[in-house]
Structures are given as structure tokens and as C-alpha cells.
Amino acid sequence: MKRVGVLGAGSWGTSLAILLTNKGIKTVLWARSHKFAKQIRENRENTLYLPGFELPAALEITSDISKAVTDKEVILFVVPSHGLREVAKQVSVALNDLSKSPNLPYALVSASKGIENRTLLTMTEIMEEVFPSGLSGRLAALSGPSFAQEVAASVPTAITIAASEHKLCKGLQELFTTETFRVYTSFDLVGVQLGGALKNVMAIASGISDGMGFGTNTRAALITRGLAEMSRLGMRLGANPMTFAGLAGLGDLVLTCTGDLSRNRHVGLKLGEGQCIDTILREMSMVAEGVKTTNSVYAMAEKYNVEMPITNQVYRVLYKGIDPKDAVNELLTRPPRRELGDILA
Q1: How far, in Å, are 1, 18, 109, 237 from residue 115 at the CA level?
Q2: What CATH number is associated with residue 74?
Q3: Residue 337 domain flag
Q4: What whole-number distance in Å separates Cα of residue 226 and Cα of residue 137?
Q5: Are 46 and 56 in contact (CB under 8 A)?
Q6: Does 217 lie in the same domain as 328?
Q7: pTM for the full predicted model
Q8: Quick one: DSSP state of residue 134?
Q9: Which residues form the domain of 318?
Q10: Contacts of 332 (CB under 8 A, 6+ apart)
Q11: How many domains does the structure of the chain reveal?
């Protein structure tokens, strides 16, 4: 696989495009805005989303989606989760009847982390709806503990690629693996994507705790009980429970709940300090996926009758305007229970 189209010129998309280009992969990075694409193409730096990192000379940058996806062996979606469906539709049109094309992409890979609000679908489930059925076996998801800035700086990182077919998994593992970017494989598409989405909700909770001045005891409790919630919902939806003990589950959860580069933890910090969500989001240049994902996960918990008390309180803080102090009090005054029994219930 030597031709890749990366859709989305945010920090993560730009970082992955740099990684692939430096590995000798012919890579095209697509930005939605013509003006923005021209700016980063001429400056050879994404000063808005990934400042301080020079873009390789071989990396092509475009706002023409047809140019980004035509004749590519792998199409990598790295757009905000709420925009993935529309971008997928554009890709489908650009490739002009994929089911009859002689140059079908080898893989369609989601590196976006979220759950669609209206449908409660994962990213690859959205892609299944948009693309012809013949491509369903070529869908994959990339997820795990990976801040874009650190990947761009070649900080050692481990991540997971999930797909339903062994050959596809192995091929994508080989594509993304470098000396500092270690890729593991998984056949649990559902679990890997849920882990990447749900951890953002828990990161907001962790940030709220830190913003209110609570200590590391509280943060550890939130991470652990947050993992229990993630596992409960995942198992209800058919995921492998062991996935949540891996990189796409616990690994990404710990990173996002504790790292200073976490946008979702930042949102929580500001909420815990007393700021309102509208002000917080207005002052951010990048998307905090956990805000929209909280809405989706709350609805999923209701739909599938899964107990998710942390998610419930984050939802009430974000969407009902309750005081974080009241949310904490409600969590702590819940009836006592056995620790592990409810995970498997």
C-alpha cells in the first residue's frame, strides 16, 4: 500500500499524514477549506492545529476531495465524528460508483472517535450505510492512546488497528508501523471504536474533578469506574470485554483523563472551575469530541438499559446546566454495592 488519502487536516490528520509521508508512502492530505489548504501548503506548517512541525516536502495538500481519494489504496478518515457522514458521502460521489470501479480502495479507515448523535452509530457503521455493501469487509478503525503532537514528534506510541478480516488487519498494521509507532491488531471493530469514543466522556468527568480541586484519589476512582461503564455498554453491544483492558480502552482512557494535551479534559477543567460550556467551546480552536459524544452515550445507555452513572452526571452538567458539585454529590450518595458484579450484570 503506497498511496493514501488522509481526509481531515486537524492535528491528528496532519500528524498521521506526516508519519506516512516520512515512511515513504505517497500521501495526500485533504482540508475542507481551500484557503486553509493553500496556507498550509505554502507555509509547510499547520500553524492552526499542529504548530511547530514542518510538513514533509513530499506531502501533497489539497482541498479537492476527488484528488485526495481517487486511485488511493487506503482512505483515512480523520474528520470530526459529527462530520464524517457528509465527508463519506462526498467520497462516494468523488469515486463515482465504487461498486463498479476497477480501482477500489483496499481499505477505508476511521481514525475519528465518536458516536453519531442522531443514529447512535459508530464511524464504520456510518460508512457501511454510505458506501456500497461490497466495501463492508474493507472497513477498519485506528484508535488508542495517541496525542497528535507526540506522534508528530516521534515519541514512542502504541495503538490498535481493528478490522473484521485478518489480512486487512495485517496489511494496515504494516502500513502504519514505524520505529516509534507500534501498531497492534484487533478484530473487535465495535469495542475499539466504543473505547475511543467513551473515554472522551470520562475525560470530561476527570477534568471536572481536577478543576474542582479534588485529588488523585478521585481521579483514579473516576478512571476505574469509568472503565466499568465503558465495559458494560461495550458488552451490551457485543464487544469483547478484553478490548477495554487494552490500548483502545484503558490505554486511551488513562491518557485522555490525565494528559495536559487532552481537549476533553480541558473542557472538564474549565467546567470544574465554574465556566459555562458555551464559553469554553467558543474559546477553543479544536473540537472536543466528548461534548457531542456525551449526548450519544447518554441516549445509548437509555436505549440499551445500561447503568452509566458517570455519563449521566456529565450529561446533566453539559446539557442540563446542573452544578458539578451537585453531580459529585449524587455520584457519592448512590447506594453501596459490590465492585465487580455490576460489570457483568
Answers
A1: 29, 27, 16, 13
A2: 3.40.50.720
A3: no
A4: 32
A5: no
A6: yes
A7: 0.94
A8: G
A9: 191-332
A10: none
A11: 2
Give rounded-to-5 percent helix, strand, coil for the chain. Answer: 55, 15, 30
Q: Does 161 score more than 50 pLDDT?
A: yes
In a domain, 218, yes or no: yes
> Does residue 141 contact residue 121 with C-beta atoms inside 8 Å?
no
Do 227 and 129 lie in a common domain? no
Please give the helix or strand (H or E) that residue 102 lies within, else none: none
Distance CA 222, CA 205 (A): 7
**Active-site residue list:** 199
Q: Is residue 15 situated within a structural domain?
A: yes
Q: Which helix (H) or strand (E) holds 306?
A: none
Question: pLDDT tens across 90-124, in order?
Answer: 998 887 655 555 566 789 999 999 999 999 999 99
| CATH code for the domain in which residue 314 is found | 1.10.1040.10
Cα 20 to Cα 73: distance, rounded to the nearest angstrom: 13
Closest CA to 1 of 34, 23, 29: 23
251 closest CA partner among 228, 271, 274, 223: 223
Cell of 278: 458555551
Is residue 268 located within the same domain as residue 297? yes
Sign of CA dihedral 310, 127, 63, 32: negative
Residue pointed to by grid coordinates 474493507: 138
- Residue 38, sorted as left (phi over 0), alpha (psi -120 to 50) or beta, turns out to be alpha
The yes-or-no verdict on residue 15 having pLDDT over 60 is: yes
